[in-house]
Amino acid sequence: MLPEFFEFYNPTKVVYEAGVATDLKPELDLIGITKYFIVSDHIINDLGLVQKVADGLVDAGFEVTGKYLDVAQDARLKDVKKCADIVKASGAEGIISIGGGSVIDTAKAVNILFSVGGDLVDDYSGAHTLTKPLNPHVVIPTTAGTGSEVTMIAVIYDEENKEKLAFPDKFLLPNLAVLDPEMTISLPPKMTAATGMDALTHAVEAYVGPQASPISDAFAVGAIELIMKNLVTATRTGDDVDARGSMLIASTMAGISFTHSMCGCIHGMAHATGGLYRVPHGIANGIFLPFGLEYNFEEIKEKLARLAPVMGEDTSGLSEDEAARLAIAAIRKLSKQLNELGALPIRLRDVGVPEDGLVAIAEGAINDGTSFYNPREMDEEELLPYIQNAY
Ligand SMILES: [Fe+2]
Fold first, then answer.
1. Which stretches of the chain drop beneath a pLDDT of 70?
2. Longest CA–CA separation in the chain, Å
3. The whole model's pTM is what?
4. Domains of the chain
């Protein structure tokens, strides 16, 4: 059935090529500015990736006005303000972010303060508060998971109130997403698996969500197929450029799907678990994915059944119910393979969540913004058993 209304807005240019991150001149010439500030983190910097990109920029005649490398595991409110002041003082005209979701989201929020000023929480809470385009933002992802290079949202962690704040705004869509598999080769197996499960969760939640359209579906299905075929290889054999490239492309496609169709209770539970117990986003999503699909089962089984063959399962002769359950089983099979590689925890008890903390996760998930986009109405008491099953 077609939705009565949907819109599709995807202005971010995407370029894919092994090695392109060090040869950005043709793309940056089109953007038209010459002074860039780099936002990244110490892990990426220590791997030499920041220097590689910076050298490429300088060799091509661009100016790197400065670097901010203190972004933590989560994009933190305090970094946004600090970094924005440094970017402004540096005389930059635009930002290049090199990293995973936290780096990219920090750079998006920094770009708000850098371009139009003000206080992030006081002036930009809520959705679509910006009224004009920001300064150019080029994103070079070093993980294949967040999809933030093509999404209109920045998720920032408020350390004082232990909660994640979401800033959705179409002006946060980056100008350019640079997909270079050489930038993800050094990602360790655990990060590869966890971020890959985040991408899978984006695509699956976008596909079964009530806001889905035929266009977001196309991106979601394409992403799911690539992830099911490549995530184990990318995790096991990190220098497989083909698997790495496929995961990067899948992550971007999943990002395009969920920035249009949104995510539901699986992300809600992951946000709560991340905020309360510091469980990394991709790991939490990987744990909750099958259980969240079970919570939504009656509402989504028709679409889930269609996903089973996309995931490589043979559904001939199966009922809709059986095919839908096979799709969930395929996800569990993938998680188990990644778990056996030592790359992915699959239980809440294994990631430091206390058993008496499960009610707080249910409460947090209900209060999360994703609640509005979940296929089944969110009910704390009804959700809790699924969280207990994930324990
Ligand atoms: Fe996510």
1. none
2. 65
3. 0.96
4. 13-183 (3.40.50.1970), 190-390 (1.20.1090.10)
